[in-house]
Amino acid sequence: MRVPAARRLQLGQQMYSTQLLDHFQNPRNVGEIADADAMAEIENPACGDVLRLTLKAAGGRITAARFKAKGCVASIACSSALTELIVGKTLKQALELRREDVIAAVGGLPQASTHAAQLALDALSAALSQIGK
Ligand SMILES: [Zn+2]
Q1: Which of these, 127, 117, 128, 130, lies nearest to 44 by C-alpha position?
Q2: CB within 5 A of ion ligand 1: which residues?
Q3: Looking at the predicted structure, is the pLDDT value of residue 133 above 80?
């Protein structure tokens, strides 16, 4: 009888960068701003991620951001990184953020996880559209 070749166990975490795992394990700005100027909740039907983003703005700048996310490792990490990216930015600068900026902020994303960066940006643009109108 032949001994089957040992199966290599693929740990999901090996796909992720240290920065991404740090955002996942110690997410920044978690929660919800009670008197937020903007709130957006976006769902990615493909993998069921839900991101709720609340923002506070003053003088044309984002002064605070909080998020609540239910989703995969990458979505939580990207949401956390997004809040760090946008606080202090002008509304215009925040609108100019691209998927690549979020991906860079988590130290890169596996191809299969780029939806997470998109989810964060979709929530951001939905929230920004409520400010200054
Ligand atoms: Zn996901």
Answers
A1: 117
A2: 47, 49, 71-72, 75
A3: no
